[in-house]
Amino acid sequence: VQLQASGGGSVQTEDSLRLSCGASGLILNNVAVGWFRQAPGKEREGVSCIGSNGFTSYRDSVKGRFVVSRDVAKDTVYLQMNSLKPEDTAIYYCYVRRWGTDFWGQGTLVTVSS
After folding, report:
1. In sequence order, what are the residues at sequence separation of 6 or more whose Cβ sits closer than 8 angstroms to the Cβ of residue 41?
2. d(CA 36, CA 45)
3. Burial 26-65 (b: 16+ CB within 10 A, else e)
4. How far is the C-alpha of 81 from the C-alpha of 51, rounded, in Å?
5. Over 32-46, what HEC string results?
6. Which residue in 100, 107, 85 sits closest to 36, CA to CA?
7. Using one digit for the tens of pLDDT, what is the confidence trace for 66-90?
């Protein structure tokens, strides 16, 4: 199983980015998918999650700005990030737990400058 996170980049404050998470060896439509991030010098933290039933959750600091969604036809999960702030700067990872195993994407860097 491999997860691939993509879509990061360098943007200005208040800009938007959309991250994508795809997988090989696993059907994302059938599982909950989480987005995590790790800022320099900080621990990895959960950002958002979408369940196999479409239920979504967000950490408080991104509520109202980030939206997690699925494209069932493409078996892809997205994280739409709007109104980005410098404190959103981090490497973003998608995550799946399946068959008792944790799977992480390779991470995609998001840099937000003021």
Report:
1. none
2. 5
3. bebbebbbbbbbeeeeeeeeebbbbeeeeeeebeeebeee
4. 19
5. CEEEEEECCCCCCEE
6. 107
7. 999 999 999 999 999 999 999 999 9
